[in-house]
């Protein structure tokens, strides 16, 4: 059981049985597709595919069924990879009745976009943009219009990047947050990282940063409720 090969085989079998149960639950009925792009730790492009369907109890399900490595993220490549995965699980592309994407430029195009390629073959595969993602895009656009808010999020992103480079730093920050932030400066950093971390510490101790921290917390808490409503979360 401790052999990496045995562990991988067990995980693979579990994945196959899980997907088989999902396909059986779908029962050959119509379904929607939810597609997104991601990169693995080696920076290879991947396509994540989930189904969306209504089961026999009238409940909407959105199970993940596969992750496929793609050579590039052009619409034609994504379509080929997606159809290959669907056919692998005996799912006919002609049964697609809905499409959902993240709004990436190679997907949302009217001519070369993936949704257009699928609509050409399956006219009933209507595409509706994620409402929650539209909210996120709007929030990002508004934040970038305000210099102080944009800088605030840039500082947070950079702090997370510095801390995230080390598992030890992540664990320390997660366990004790602010009280250990200064201690992190004293150990576990290279010279360049130390200078960068000291600069971030100075910025995070400033009044403007703390004020925006509390302000954005309240704003994001309110928007979280709206996001849940748009995503249909219970």
UniProtKB/TrEMBL annotation:
Entry-linked InterPro entries: AtLOH3-like (IPR055298), DUF4371 (IPR025398), RNaseH-like_sf (IPR012337)
A Pfam family hit: DUF4371
Domain DUF4371 residue range list: 1-113
Membrane-traversing stretches: none
Record's protein name: Zinc finger MYM-type protein 1-like
Taxonomic source organism: Nicotiana tabacum
Biological classification of the source: Eukaryota, Viridiplantae, Streptophyta, Embryophyta, Tracheophyta
Gene behind the chain: LOC107822958
């Amino acid at each position: 059981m401790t052999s990496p090969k045995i562990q991988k085989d067990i995980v693979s079998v579990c994945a196959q049985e899980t997907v088989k149960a999902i396909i059986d639950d779908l029962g050959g009925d119509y379904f929607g597709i939810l597609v997104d792009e991601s990169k693995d730790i080696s920076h290879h492009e991947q396509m994540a595919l989930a189904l969306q369907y209504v089961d026999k109890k009238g409940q909407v399900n959105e199970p993940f069924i596969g992750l496929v490595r793609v050579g590039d993220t052009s619409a034609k490549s994504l379509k080929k990879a997606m159809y290959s995965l669907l056919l692998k699980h005996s799912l006919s592309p002609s049964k697609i009745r809905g499409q959902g994407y993240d709004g990436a430029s190679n997907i949302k195009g009217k001519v070369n976009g993936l949704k257009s390629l699928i609509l050409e073959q399956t006219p009933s595969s209507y595409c509706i943009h994620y409402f929650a993602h539209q909210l996120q895009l709007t929030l990002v656009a508004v934040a970038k219009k305000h210099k102080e808010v944009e800088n605030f999020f840039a500082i947070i992103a950079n702090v997370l990047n510095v801390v995230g480079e080390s598992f030890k730093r992540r664990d320390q920050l997660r366990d004790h947050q602010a009280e250990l932030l200064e201690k992190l400066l004293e150990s576990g950093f290279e010279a360049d990282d130390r200078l960068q971390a000291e600069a971030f510490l100075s910025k995070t101790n400033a009044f403007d940063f703390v004020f925006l921290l509390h302000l954005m917390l309240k704003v994001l808490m309110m928007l979280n409720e709206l996001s849940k409503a748009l995503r249909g979360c219970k």
